[in-house]
Design brief:
Order of helices and strands: HHHHHHEEE
Structural class: mainly alpha
Largest sheet: 3 strands, antiparallel
Helix content: 25-40%
Length: 131
């Protein structure tokens, strides 16, 4: 069952959320209203977050780009492979799960060369070390 913008408005869907639900398939109005109640609008990124995103995409010396270019990863249970997604790799860095040369850089922070120590999940029982 699809709902038009007018039908959504009549059902009480807030005006700023109508665009997210219009013309999508739902089993019933109750299912639609449950989806609307659970829906969370992603807040806009701050200027600082935008700058960090740009650094991660463009700076070849940042930790994210260095690891992505090396392509040396442990098995990823989330991706079920030896290559994590970019989002997952960035999350590992930002959560402090990767130690490079004795430091825990965030995804946007620079890495000093040469890399002599690369450890994934150093605090876990099953850490992975690469040199």
């Amino acid at each position: 069952m699809k709902f038009s913008g007018r039908q959504l408005k009549d059902l009480g869907v807030p005006q700023d959320r109508i665009k997210y639900f219009v013309d999508k398939e739902y089993d019933s109005p109750e299912v639609l209203l449950r989806a609307v109640a659970e829906f969370r609008v992603t807040p806009a990124k701050s200027d600082e977050e935008k700058v960090i995103d740009r650094i991660v995409r463009e700076d070849m010396d940042c930790a994210f780009q260095v690891l992505w270019e090396l392509q040396v990863f442990p098995w990823s249970p989330q991706s079920n492979s030896t290559t994590p997604s970019k989002r997952e790799l960035r999350q590992w860095l930002d959560d402090g799960a990767v130690r490079i040369n004795g430091k825990f850089p965030r995804a946007h922070e620079s890495v000093e060369f040469p890399i002599t120590d690369l450890v994934y999940f150093s605090g876990a029982a099953r850490q992975t070390t690469s040199v």
